[in-house]
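Following up on my earlier thread - several people asked me to post the actual chain instead of describing it. Fair enough. Here it is, all 161 residues.
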Amino acid sequence: MERSMEVQMDLYLFFSDYSKAFDKVKHEDLFKLLTQLSIDAKVLGIPQNLYLVQDAAIRKDNGCSEFEPIRRGVRQGCVMSPDLFNICSEMILRNINDHGSVKLNGHNITDLRCADDTVPIAGSENIFTLILDTVSAESGKRGLELNIKKESACLYQRKDT
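Reply from S.P.:
Thanks for posting it. Predicted structure:
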């Protein structure tokens, strides 16, 4: 941000957060992306063995429901979960690359990420609007909901002299 001020560049930032992000990751989408990324079959087998063979039943007063497969969610507390979520997030954020990036210190930057927190970055209001629309639409396609209560937008504006 300091560098953007030095080079007289506006920065539009969107601090996004997903509601129950780790609970909503679709296994099908996740493994499709891992396959597209050419992840070695042995390595891919580890999360597949954890997630593709899960069934659950609901215990009731008069017994249990039928067992049903679990098709979404990554395990909270598992060391792989943040990485698996970031891979899912990558599916969403790859689509904002088409809208351009901000060039700072010779690097093209489209976003900043940590676990389920994402900050898309734009250099103009028009691009910023396109990015927000894209993130919202792509998140919805994957069953992820943006948490409006935890979101905010910020404009770091250059000083005109």
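The helical segments are 2-6, 21-24, 27-36, 41-51, 81-93, 125-141. That should answer part of your original question.
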